[in-house]
Design brief:
Structural class: mainly beta
Distance between the termini: 89 Å
Radius of gyration: 26 Å
Helix content: under 10%
Strand order of the largest sheet: 1-2-7-6
Number of helices: 2
CATH class of one domain: Mainly Beta
Length: 145
Protein backbone atom coordinates (compact mmCIF):
# COMPACT_ATOMS: atom_id res chain seq x y z
CA UNK A 1 0.00 0.00 0.00
CA UNK A 2 1.33 3.45 -0.96
CA UNK A 3 1.89 6.18 1.61
CA UNK A 4 -0.13 9.36 1.07
CA UNK A 5 1.78 12.61 1.52
CA UNK A 6 0.63 16.20 1.32
CA UNK A 7 1.95 18.13 -1.70
CA UNK A 8 3.90 21.30 -0.78
CA UNK A 9 4.28 23.54 -3.87
CA UNK A 10 6.94 25.69 -2.18
CA UNK A 11 9.12 22.81 -1.05
CA UNK A 12 11.93 24.09 1.17
CA UNK A 13 10.67 27.67 0.86
CA UNK A 14 7.51 26.61 2.65
CA UNK A 15 9.62 25.63 5.69
CA UNK A 16 11.34 29.04 5.64
CA UNK A 17 8.04 30.91 5.67
CA UNK A 18 6.55 28.70 8.36
CA UNK A 19 9.57 28.72 10.64
CA UNK A 20 11.56 31.94 10.21
CA UNK A 21 9.50 34.52 8.36
CA UNK A 22 6.64 34.83 10.87
CA UNK A 23 8.70 34.04 13.99
CA UNK A 24 7.69 36.60 16.61
CA UNK A 25 5.40 38.43 14.16
CA UNK A 26 2.46 38.55 16.56
CA UNK A 27 4.59 39.42 19.58
CA UNK A 28 6.69 42.31 18.25
CA UNK A 29 5.34 45.68 17.12
CA UNK A 30 5.21 46.16 13.38
CA UNK A 31 6.44 49.43 11.87
CA UNK A 32 4.74 50.55 8.69
CA UNK A 33 6.78 52.23 5.97
CA UNK A 34 6.67 56.03 6.18
CA UNK A 35 4.57 56.35 3.02
CA UNK A 36 1.70 54.44 4.62
CA UNK A 37 1.84 56.22 7.97
CA UNK A 38 1.32 59.72 6.52
CA UNK A 39 -2.04 61.22 7.41
CA UNK A 40 -4.43 62.23 4.67
CA UNK A 41 -7.27 64.71 4.59
CA UNK A 42 -10.46 62.81 3.82
CA UNK A 43 -13.24 64.85 2.30
CA UNK A 44 -16.56 64.97 0.52
CA UNK A 45 -17.29 67.49 -2.24
CA UNK A 46 -20.86 68.22 -3.27
CA UNK A 47 -22.26 70.62 -5.86
CA UNK A 48 -25.54 72.41 -6.48
CA UNK A 49 -26.50 75.15 -8.95
CA UNK A 50 -24.92 77.94 -6.90
CA UNK A 51 -21.95 76.51 -4.99
CA UNK A 52 -19.61 73.66 -4.10
CA UNK A 53 -19.51 72.40 -0.53
CA UNK A 54 -16.40 70.68 0.82
CA UNK A 55 -16.47 68.76 4.09
CA UNK A 56 -13.01 67.68 5.23
CA UNK A 57 -12.08 65.57 8.26
CA UNK A 58 -9.34 67.19 10.31
CA UNK A 59 -9.52 65.55 13.73
CA UNK A 60 -7.32 67.05 16.42
CA UNK A 61 -6.43 70.13 14.32
CA UNK A 62 -7.14 73.63 15.65
CA UNK A 63 -8.76 76.11 13.27
CA UNK A 64 -5.71 78.38 13.60
CA UNK A 65 -3.58 75.63 12.01
CA UNK A 66 -5.77 75.27 8.88
CA UNK A 67 -5.19 77.22 5.67
CA UNK A 68 -7.43 77.33 2.59
CA UNK A 69 -6.22 78.89 -0.65
CA UNK A 70 -8.18 79.51 -3.85
CA UNK A 71 -6.82 80.20 -7.31
CA UNK A 72 -9.58 80.24 -9.93
CA UNK A 73 -10.93 76.70 -9.80
CA UNK A 74 -7.94 75.30 -7.85
CA UNK A 75 -8.58 74.67 -4.12
CA UNK A 76 -5.87 73.77 -1.59
CA UNK A 77 -6.52 72.82 2.03
CA UNK A 78 -3.51 72.46 4.29
CA UNK A 79 -3.12 71.86 8.01
CA UNK A 80 -0.37 71.54 10.59
CA UNK A 81 -0.90 68.49 12.81
CA UNK A 82 1.02 69.02 16.04
CA UNK A 83 2.21 66.36 18.43
CA UNK A 84 1.91 66.89 22.14
CA UNK A 85 5.07 66.03 24.06
CA UNK A 86 4.35 63.63 26.87
CA UNK A 87 6.95 61.32 28.31
CA UNK A 88 6.68 59.22 31.42
CA UNK A 89 9.63 57.63 33.14
CA UNK A 90 9.82 53.88 32.79
CA UNK A 91 7.50 53.69 29.77
CA UNK A 92 8.51 52.65 26.30
CA UNK A 93 6.49 53.08 23.15
CA UNK A 94 5.10 49.81 21.82
CA UNK A 95 3.06 51.15 18.92
CA UNK A 96 2.81 54.71 17.59
CA UNK A 97 0.30 55.40 14.83
CA UNK A 98 -0.63 59.04 15.42
CA UNK A 99 0.81 61.41 12.84
CA UNK A 100 2.30 64.86 13.27
CA UNK A 101 3.47 67.20 10.55
CA UNK A 102 1.93 69.00 7.59
CA UNK A 103 -0.86 67.59 5.45
CA UNK A 104 -2.51 69.11 2.42
CA UNK A 105 -4.99 68.30 -0.30
CA UNK A 106 -5.35 70.13 -3.59
CA UNK A 107 -7.98 69.64 -6.28
CA UNK A 108 -9.64 71.39 -9.24
CA UNK A 109 -13.33 72.17 -9.61
CA UNK A 110 -15.29 72.31 -12.87
CA UNK A 111 -15.89 76.08 -12.66
CA UNK A 112 -14.18 79.09 -11.09
CA UNK A 113 -14.95 80.04 -7.50
CA UNK A 114 -16.05 83.47 -6.26
CA UNK A 115 -13.34 84.03 -3.63
CA UNK A 116 -15.12 87.07 -2.11
CA UNK A 117 -18.21 85.03 -1.20
CA UNK A 118 -16.41 81.86 0.00
CA UNK A 119 -16.85 80.89 3.66
CA UNK A 120 -15.52 78.23 6.01
CA UNK A 121 -16.27 76.92 9.48
CA UNK A 122 -14.61 74.30 11.68
CA UNK A 123 -16.43 72.27 14.34
CA UNK A 124 -15.93 68.84 15.90
CA UNK A 125 -12.96 67.98 13.68
CA UNK A 126 -14.83 68.70 10.42
CA UNK A 127 -14.01 71.66 8.19
CA UNK A 128 -16.91 72.84 6.01
CA UNK A 129 -16.07 75.17 3.12
CA UNK A 130 -18.75 76.73 0.91
CA UNK A 131 -17.38 77.85 -2.46
CA UNK A 132 -19.91 79.84 -4.53
CA UNK A 133 -19.57 79.55 -8.28
CA UNK A 134 -18.44 82.68 -10.11
CA UNK A 135 -21.21 84.45 -12.02
CA UNK A 136 -20.96 84.23 -15.78
CA UNK A 137 -19.36 80.82 -15.62
CA UNK A 138 -22.04 79.29 -17.83
CA UNK A 139 -20.97 77.13 -20.74
CA UNK A 140 -20.89 79.04 -24.02
CA UNK A 141 -21.88 77.28 -27.21
CA UNK A 142 -19.81 78.05 -30.29
CA UNK A 143 -21.36 77.75 -33.71
CA UNK A 144 -19.42 75.65 -36.21
CA UNK A 145 -18.99 77.20 -39.69
Amino acid sequence: MANITRYDPFGDLGDFFKDDFFKGFFFKPVRLPEAQSVAQIRMDVTEDDKAYTVRAELPGVKKEDIKISLDGNQVTISAEVKQEKEEKKGEKVICKERYHGSVYRSFSLASDVDEAQASAKHADGVLEVVLPKKAGGAVKQIAIQ
